[in-house]
């Protein structure tokens, strides 16, 4: 058992407890693995593509699966290259802001792209 358990990363509650391999917050119910929470510095967000490569602003990516686009009969085909991405805190997991030739400005999920 860990003597000094870390406070909850979501609500900063000091009364966390261990449950198997997880640390649990009794106030907000958040569960996490203590090694993962301590390795990342607060405020630093890491976005990874579909194969685990770390993405950064300005990278070029390739779409790995066909995507349907509302209002477009064709959609975005797998293999479409997207240049100069910007990482954002998007809604519903859409964390890439970009412009795609023929479609314009869009938001994509990092799980459907691969670093080029």
Automatic annotation (TrEMBL):
Protein YjdM N-terminal domain mapped to chain residues: 5-32
Domain Protein YjdM C-terminal: 47-116
InterPro entries reported in the protein's UniProt record: YjdM (IPR004624), YjdM_C (IPR013988), YjdM_N (IPR013987)
Transmembrane segments: none
Family, per entry: Belongs to the YjdM family.
Xref: NCBIfam families: phnA (TIGR00686)
The protein's name: Zinc ribbon domain-containing protein YjdM
């Amino acid at each position: 058992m860990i003597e000094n358990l870390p406070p909850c990363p979501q609500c900063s509650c000091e009364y966390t407890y261990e449950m198997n391999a997880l640390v649990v917050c009794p106030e907000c119910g958040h569960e996490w693995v203590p090694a993962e929470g301590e390795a990342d510095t607060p405020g630093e967000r890491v976005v990874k593509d579909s194969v685990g490569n770390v993405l950064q602003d300005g990278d070029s990516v390739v779409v790995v699966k066909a995507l349907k686009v509302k209002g477009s009969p064709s959609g975005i085909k797998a293999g479409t290259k997207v240049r100069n991405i910007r990482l954002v805190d998007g809604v519903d997991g859409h964390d890439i802001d970009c412009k795609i030739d023929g479609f314009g400005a869009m938001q994509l999920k990092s799980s459907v792209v691969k670093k080029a």
